[in-house]
UniProtKB/TrEMBL annotation, chain A:
GO terms for cellular component: nuclear cap binding complex; nucleus. The keyword Nucleus applies. One of its GO terms (biological process) is 7-methylguanosine mRNA capping. It comes from Meleagris gallopavo (Wild turkey). This is Nuclear cap-binding protein subunit 1. Gene3D superfamilies: 1.25.40.180.
TrEMBL record, chain B:
The gene is NCBP2. It comes from Meleagris gallopavo (Wild turkey). Component of the nuclear cap-binding complex (CBC), a heterodimer composed of ncbp1/cbp80 and ncbp2/cbp20 that interacts with m7GpppG-capped RNA. Pfam families: RRM_1. This is Nuclear cap-binding protein subunit 2. Signal peptide: none annotated. GO terms for cellular component: nuclear cap binding complex; nucleus.
């Protein structure tokens, strides 16, 4: 099944099958039957991408005289009739239409020649389906909100335009290599097989169809005026090239050198501006919403390999692309900007941070919250993380200093002699000396006992209820002493874990710990992120505390900064992994019990039967409770996040409406897209709790701006 | 039609394969060592500059997944960084992605190299060269500003 693994070389394999079929009719028959079986299997287990390639393969077998055209048309008739099914998700019909349309570049001509009336009917049915289908989901998946210079089209709309143009061109398709043409004299003698009638497997509750997509375009023929002409956005050639390049990446993503070589050796190199197509396809994947098909860092390394193989041409195309992406930052989706920031900074770190920053001086005159200066600031911050502060100062022109990151030093309020009068100053000194003298948790507790609680009036504070001053003094001092490196800070957290747990026992305590961490390390966002991560993992704070902290007023100033969202998404991911882990433990234990039962059933000895079950059954019950509690915590985390978003956005919307000002400030765009990002990045988990969210939060009373995000999300799997 | 050669290319994951290197100080059989390497979540990272920090390593290697721990390699005598480290991930898959996409790229302007490690044990954070640093810095003839200049034997001439 090489063809399934290398779909970009489809026509080579179909030709081979055609030649074999001409020699041995039975082989052809068996092969076709095997493919149909495989297609059914793929559809049953939700392997829709593989299924598309199988359908395409079958279509091309028509060109090789293995399959009779009328029977292929009949199969497509069954595909298109799925659009008549009632009460099925739109994404189901979408797939069958896509499988039909996307095979036509290969076989449209042949099918039309043999069965034009039937094909016209199919196309007309397709057209009316496409006209009536919902496209609420599109704004959520577009990389840019603007339609210029290239419209971000819904994938089926784009494909439809391409097929219509192909039909107008009388199905002449010139890009696909068709080896079977050279063997026509042999192949036309072959006996053809009829496809058995194909009934699409019915929709079930377990069916998960591919999500809709938006076609990413950033180049057209004007971008490479000296090279070969880039096929237009509605040409079928463009579709075929993009499909094949995506397939190559899918086949070789684990082997970056091979992948780069295969991309660059794509046939047609001198007839199409291949470098532009490659760069466009790679960015299409990198910026794909909800998520890229592969891990982000793969694309960075792949582009570097491509630059190594084509040092005279590819870097220039990449620079041109970067420039274009920068120019269009104002309308780029926030999640995509994040990825652009990560890619560009990592890329630069491999090339000594060489870049013509002066070309971007236009951003210096803008408000710092606008997308362009914001982008440059975030890039420089990320570049600094991969090098060091002075390096960044050196690589940018002096005029860019306003966008340079802060020197990542710690701010210790008790270290400044001017702050002598601060409450807790002397305790901080005591703590410092004690910790330097290798004090343990007990000694720390006893030093802290004397710290008054500004929240309470009476002095007999028996236990350790929430005392913000204690937290402040302890956390400031400890973090300052451990500021040297991440490892030092982690050791400190580990050594004084007991103190942390006690001080942060209450929800307010947890929140205050986070606040103090921020106060100490606000110049070093990377340190904040790793400390928060460690504190969650060692259960000093919990995920909900982090969520509340992120939406707190103290952090409002940093709310649109990239690192905040990295922290929030990392927190959500930890929560998700935790739930999965306990779930797996439960399943494993259940499996053990089942195996035990099986062993007992096969033995005749049933003396010890019930006794053996006991501990395992208890364990299962305990794990069941653990799973439920973890899921409850997970649902609560999303509730907190969504609630806070709703509060924040509603406040802004009300303020704008009463003040008569435009809602769409840079802050608003950023915030609403961050809400979208929550939905998109964690869509599978959120689906599980949809009913709760719909009933509690996303009700009809909500402002339509906010409700639209929810509705677009629902439309993704509708 | 389906040549074994093509299929093996398709299943190939060469960046994740074990290298030829085996730690000679490993306690246990070759078989044990390879078994540990094949399921390890820990990577050895080499050719670092002496000035590369834990923070830089964390930023770069964090791109393939959540890092559990970084242990900086130290000169046995001076107890300062001597150009290597261990990066341990929570998940094997994340370490594999580091082998595929971070190995052979630059950190602090130097091409770094990653390899599977059987697992950190106390003592392994020290260089094994006679002067306290790594063995490779004992004998090399070239000048490397990021790794203390000339090799130790050259310096002693």
């Amino acid at each position: 099944m090489d063809a399934r693994l290398l779909p970009e070389k489809l026509t080579v394999y179909t030709t081979l099958v055609g030649l074999l079929n001409a020699r041995n009719y039975n082989f052809g028959g068996e092969f076709v039957e095997a493919m149909i079986r495989q297609l059914k299997e793929c559809l049953k287990v939700n392997m829709y991408n593989e299924a598309v390639h199988l359908v395409r393969f079958l279509s091309d077998l028509v060109n090789c005289h293995v399959i009779a055209a009328p029977s292929m048309v009949a199969m497509f008739e069954n595909f298109v009739s799925v659009t008549q099914e009632e009460d099925v998700p739109q994404v189901r019909c979408d797939w069958y239409i896509f499988a039909f349309l996307s095979s036509l570049p290969w076989v449209g001509k042949e099918l039309y020649e043999k069965k034009d009336a039937e094909m016209d009917r199919l196309l007309s049915q397709t057209e009316s389906y496409l006209k009536r289908r919902q496209k609420i989901h599109v704004p959520m998946l577009q990389v840019w909100t603007a339609d210029k210079p290239h419209p971000q089209e819904e994938y089926l709309d784009c494909l439809w335009s391409q097929i219509q143009k192909l039909k107008k061109d009388r199905w002449q398709e010139r890009h696909i290599l068709r080896p079977y043409l050279a063997f026509d004299s042999i192949l036309c003698e072959a006996l053809q097989h009829n496809l058995p009638p194909f009934t699409p497997p019915p929709h079930t509750e377990d069916s998960v169809y591919p999500m809709p997509r938006v076609i990413f375009r950033m180049f057209d023929y004007t971008d490479d005026p000296e090279g070969p002409v880039m096929p237009g956005s509605h040409s079928v050639e463009r579709f075929v090239i993009e499909e094949n390049l995506h397939c190559i990446i899918k086949s070789h993503w684990k082997e970056r050198k091979t992948c780069a070589a295969q991309l660059l050796s794509y046939p047609g190199n001198n007839k199409i501006p291949l470098n532009y197509h490659i760069v466009e396809v790679i960015f299409a994947e990198l910026f794909q919403l909800p998520s890229p098909p592969h891990i982000e860092v793969m694309y960075t390394t792949l582009l570097i390999e491509l630059c190594k193989l084509q040092p005279g041409s590819l870097p220039q195309v990449l620079a041109q692309a970067t420039e274009m992406l920068y120019m269009r930052l104002d309308t780029m989706n926030t999640t995509c900007v994040d990825r652009f920031i990560n890619w560009f900074s990592h890329h630069l770190s491999n090339f000594q941070f060489r870049w013509s920053w002066e070309d971007w001086s236009d951003c210096l005159t803008q408000d710092l919250e606008k997308p362009k200066p914001k982008f440059v600031r975030e890039v420089l911050e990320k570049c600094m993380r991969l090098s060091y502060h002075q390096r960044i100062i050196d690589i940018v022109p002096a005029s860019f200093s306003v966008l340079s990151p802060a020197n990542p030093v710690c701010i210790y309020k008790y270290g400044d002699e001017n702050n002598r009068s601060l409450p807790g100053y002397t305790v901080a000194l005591c703590l410092t000396i004690a910790i330097k003298n290798k004090a343990g948790n007990d000694e720390i507790f006893s030093i802290l006992k004397d710290v008054p609680n500004p929240n309470q009036d009476d002095d007999d504070d028996e236990g350790f209820t929430f005392n913000p001053l204690k937290i402040e003094v302890f956390v400031q001092t400890l973090l300052h002493l451990a500021a040297k490196s991440f490892s030092h800070s982690f050791s400190a957290l580990a050594k004084f874990h007991e103190v942390f747990k006690t001080l942060a026992e209450s929800d307010e305590g947890k929140l205050h710990v986070l606040r103090v961490v921020y106060e100490v390390w606000k110049n070093h966002p990377q340190m904040i992120a790793v400390l928060v991560d460690k504190m969650i993992r060692t259960q000093i704070v919990d995920c909900a505390a982090v969520a509340n902290w992120i939406f707190s007023s103290e952090l409002a100033h940093d709310f649109t900064r990239f690192y905040i969202w990295e922290i929030l998404h990392s927190t959500i991911r930890k929560m998700n992994k935790h739930v999965l882990k306990i779930h797996k433990e439960l399943e494993d234990t259940k499996a053990r019990l089942a195996r035990q039962h099986k062993r007992r059933d096969s033995d005749d000895d049933d003396r010890s039967s019930d006794r053996e079950d006991g501990p395992l059954e208890e364990q299962i019950e305990r794990l069941q409770e653990k799973v439920e509690s973890a899921q409850s915590e997970q649902k609560n985390l999303f509730l907190v996040i969504f609630q806070r978003f709703i509060m924040l956005l509603t406040e802004h919307l009300v303020r704008c409406e009463t003040g008569g000002i435009d809602v769409f400030t840079p802050w608003y765009k950023s915030c609403i897209e961050r809400l979208q990002q929550i939905f998109l990045q964690h869509h599978q988990i959120i689906q599980q709790y949809m009913v709760t969210f719909e009933n509690l939060l996303f009700t009809a009373e909500l402002d339509h701006h906010i409700l639209a995000v929810f509705q677009q999300f629902c439309a993704l799997q509708a | 039609m389906c040549s074994g050669g093509t299929l093996s290319i398709l299943r190939s994951d060469s960046y994740v394969d074990l290298s030829q290197y085996r730690d000679q100080h490993f306690r246990g059989t070759r078989y044990d060592q390879e078994r540990l390497l094949r399921k390890s979540c820990t990577l050895y990272v080499g050719n670092l500059s002496f000035y590369t920090t834990e923070e830089q390593i964390h930023e770069l290697f964090g791109k393939s997944g959540d890092i559990k721990k970084i242990i900086m390699g130290l000169d046995k005598v001076k107890k300062t960084a001597c150009g290597f480290c261990f990066v341990e991930y929570y998940a094997r898959g994340d370490a594999e992605n580091a082998m595929r996409y971070i190995n052979g790229t630059r950190l602090d302007d130097r091409i770094i190299r990653t390899d599977w490690d059987a697992g950190f044990k106390e003592g392994r954070q020290y260089g094994r060269g006679r002067s306290g640093g790594q063995v490779r810095d004992e004998y090399r003839q070239d000048y490397d500003a990021g790794r203390g200049g000339y090799g130790k034997t050259v310096q002693c001439q």
